[in-house]
Amino acid sequence: IIQVIPEAEMITNVSDIMVKKHSFDKSYFVSIENRDKWSGKEAYPSKGVLKYFTDGSRIDNRAGFGVYGPGAKLSVPLGKHATVFQAEVMAIESCARWLILTKPK
């Protein structure tokens, strides 16, 4: 996963302003369940589903992001100029790039 970071554009951006872009050809889906469903046994994904966690944060003028899941355990500092938004996007982008490159099963 660390190999995808140099390709990520978000690190070198001087601003976190983004131009709106529509993408209608997605090969994935996002499922956001309600709190009741996540409170019991149903919180665990179905067999064969891969679950990854991403996070970006900024504390004491230092930002960074992390990715955790099957085959991925990463914590990356981004320095003092990155915003929380940039850190969050870097986490998601790095995870997505890694999944595309490695095609885990």
UniProtKB/TrEMBL annotation:
UniProt GO MF annotations: nucleic acid binding
Membrane-spanning segments: none
SUPFAM superfamilies per UniProt: Ribonuclease H-like
Domain of life: Eukaryota
Protein name as catalogued: RNase H type-1 domain-containing protein
